Amino acid sequence: MLGAVTLGILTLVLTAPAASAHSVLESSTPAKDSSIATAPAEVVLQFNEALDTGFTELSVLGPDGASHWEGGAPAIAGPKLSVPLKPLGQAGKYTVNYRIVSGDGHPVSGSFTFTLTSPGPATATSVPVVPAQPGSPAAAANMAAQSDTGGVPVWLWVGGAVVLLITGAVVAVRIGRGPGTP
Asked: What is the C-alpha radius of gyration for the chain, rounded to an integer number of angstroms?
């Protein structure tokens, strides 16, 4: 009987589908790893679900890795996140970095690149990175992102749950046998 209970519990735990409640980047304009000859006027990211409007960041860094090419603040329209661009400068690889908050409240971040094959008319403008002040929305977003990525792995929680369930089953069987029964 104990073996059947254990087997049933293990089957449920090991065959359960993984939860995927976080937003996922489905597509972008310009596309990830694409090569384009004409600089885009904006960067648009399409996610699988509507985004939370809090703590959103979207930056476009030039080939030097430091110059910013955003021409305004990021905008959210349902599952789309976009930012207008300044006219791009030198040809090369541009990096798009994003951080959003999923509909379930969890921060999601990522990056991708695209290559501009013909130089644009502009020159780079470097924007210094200023650390967030304690208590500011940017500091809260950074703390949420750090706590989300530094947590306990899911497999450890699942393993702990399995051990607790097996222990509970063993105790229930022993209690059910009554006193004095080995």
From this structure: 25
